[in-house]
Fold this protein.
Amino acid sequence: MTERREVAIVGSGFAGSLLARILAKLGYDVVLLERGTHPRFAIGESSTPLANLALERIGTTYGLADCWRLATHGRWLAHHPELRRGLKRGFTYYRHHPGERFADRGLDSERLLVAASPEDALADTHWLRADVDHHFVREAVSAGVDYRDRVELTRAEVRGDGVLLEGTRDGARIALEAAFVIDASGPGGFLARALAIPSGLAHTQTRSSLVSSHFEGARLMRDVAPGLPEGPYPEDWAAVHHIADEGWMYSLRFDDGVTSAGWLLSPRGLASLHASGAFSAGELWATMLERYPTIRESFGVARPLMPIALRETIQHRLTRAAAQRWAMLPHAYAFVDPLFSTGISWSLRGVERLASQFAESASGRRVPDAKSLARYDAMLGAEADQIDLLVAGAYEAMSSFELFAAQAMLYFAAVSYSEVKQRMTPSDDAAWSGFLGVGDPVLEPLPREALRRLREGVDARSFTGWVATAIAPRNIAGLADESRHNLYPLDLDVLIERHALLGMTKEQVLDALPALRGMREEPAFG
């Protein structure tokens, strides 16, 4: 017998579970289908100011107190200490060279620190996804979502009035007909296979492999490379990036001392490791530690808490994100690379957009119309391109830390401007503002132009000067300033001085400062 539901969501990561819960709050009959069980390991752990802004908006819009409380490290500790997390004060980058310890050259060291918050209580977080995803599933169930795990879907058929889903659960056949299906199952997800949606990967620029695990006992950089000039925040309590010849390594430290770490290897970098005889995940990991002494001091004594895993190609891209009767959340549609921590923020932007479309349809046809879905599809396509171009440029720039630091300014200019603009001049359609500058006449062209210049072999001084000039109309954070020596605090004085870049007077900016994160009291949740 075929069951009937209004909305079926496939995949119960944080984005799918949160969207299911919102739709249930809006009065929809929602079934949430999960192939595995919770709690479970997942990557995509580093939050950002824009991600937490989206969480706060979701919390206040739909009356979800936990979303608002999970949006800063201090509120998280106060209200949800049972959910494991890590303190993230900013973005830290170091350039390493084979066979050499990280060089302490004082203020001229090859490092970049960009603060994302003024203090620990207002900071972003690393999410221990096993805890956070499970939390959102439980909250979805409490909101009335029909959650079913251990479901293996095998077929989808789009019909005029809905989508037929077929599969099995614990060996028993199931059949569901939903008026609308949302794929939140991640890269290579269900609808891509079931509807034979063509891949768009050939048209993307970035390629990388991932070698990763969670580790116990990793040492901090301040312990293995002591004496570096003080930065704007404790540099280990951040999204730490180790840039190398073969790619880059992320290191995300949780409050309990566990560290999530992984190497993202370029095709050339992976080939060089293969040439040295390293092929398995363990061999690749060990060889990279052997090549970089300071990283070896940090991770050589660390114990993996699960087998070190290898994914040969992590990129994923489809040619469509939505059509009649179905839509994909961002990472079912496209994934580029964890550089610049775009994952959680972009996923939450997708949740907001689809939730708003269902809210607008709740008193009418109860599914998003063709025009709305076309808008959603076009926006995700443009944003996936933007992420890809920005990250591809960063890989091109990794050979020179001066080039890389300049390329990173494109990201920080876009996200700092977007966050402050959305907080100080809020609007009902903020979720539809383009991610990473999409739709902004100043910011949108920059990643493509930067990639072109980098591939043509631009020299570092010329590129740095071009970036500083290009971002100037949106540079409210004092970025690309040589006098900072790549150490960028959160500087409200600069923000106030550059009020005109926001289209505001100095007095308007001063009046709007309480809108910044952590400056307002908790809303009244029912």
User: Anything to note?
Assistant: Residues 370-397 form the longest helix (28 residues). The longest strand covers residues 172-183. The chain has a mean pLDDT of 97. The domain at 87-124+207-311 is CATH 3.30.9.100 (D-Amino Acid Oxidase; Chain A, domain 2).
